[in-house]
Amino acid sequence: LSSHALDMFDNFFTELYDACDKMDIPADAAISESGLGQFEINLLHQPNALKAADDAWLFKILVKGIARKNGFAASFMAKPYPNYAGSGLHMHFSVLDHKGLNIFDNSSAEGSAALHNAVQGCLSAMPGSMLIFAPHANSYARLVPEAHAPTSVAWAYENRTVAIRIPSGPPKSRRIEHRLPGGDVNPYLSVAVILGAALNGIEDGIEAPTPITGNAYTQKLPQVPETWDGAITSFEKSDQVARILNPELMLNFLSTKRQEASKMADLSPEQQIEIYLDSV
Fold it and tell me: Maximum distance among all alpha carbons in the chain?
């Protein structure tokens, strides 16, 4: 799939971008990805985190509705096809001070102490946040080595095998990319947990470990929870997540995920995929 794939969906993308313009959703150009019928569309950087989550949520609804109008289905499942790459919902962020200056920028390629503290916060909260980033049974099929999705608790500069990537570019645009969330996340919870974890790290002032180099999949690194049950347990016991989310919200989310897990356990993989294709 390449430019030919984009041409095949020309009417769909035309309608989608027209709708995004009318709804003030800052959708960037579509890119044909490696998966079957898979496309990437970036939502451009903006200063309001809640608006960014709103845009992500409304964008998903738009994509699904316009796809139905054009006679096909769209899904944000993390792993709809076992032999193709899954879908992620990566988040890039930086932090501005009261003067509008990026606190991650210290005019160097390494970034400021605040950036390193924020990275450490994200790493510390990562195991407990896994249920937010991979909320469904199918989510864990995406998180396998050498499949374009991170599996370890690690960070690096300009390295797409890690969960926390620091992209290259001018120091003024220094930012963090969190690569763990799948396409099936709730964007409100994902944004809240990522920014909350970064804030925890900045407040605690703990330095991040040395960034890795090379392929993270081939190194002995701490791993994120590999199963849904493991993620549920890590979420329930996480002191880091408890600093971010309201206790009642955590209890409600845990109850919902346990109920979903119980229901999915009685279904075949084919039945699960049929449900998730439409619901996420």
Answer: 55
Are the C-beta atoms of 235 and 241 separated by less than 8 Å? yes
Which of 24, 23, 28 has the alpha carbon at shortest distance from 92?
Answer: 28
Q: What is the pLDDT of residue 1?
A: 45
Which two structure tokens, joined as six digits, stand for 21?
């313009």
96 CA to centre of own chain: 21
- Cβ neighbors of 178 (< 8 A, separation 6 or more) are 90, 91, 92, 93, 122, 163, 164, 194
Cα 140 to Cα 203: distance, rounded to the nearest angstrom: 31
To the question of pTM greater than 0.70 for the whole model, the response is yes
Give the residue among 21, 228, 20 at the shortest CA–CA distance from 130.
228
**Tens digits of per-residue pLDDT, 124-163?**
999 999 999 999 999 999 999 998 899 999 999 999 999 9
Structural domains in the chain plus CATH codes: 1-74 (no CATH), 75-279 (3.30.590.10)
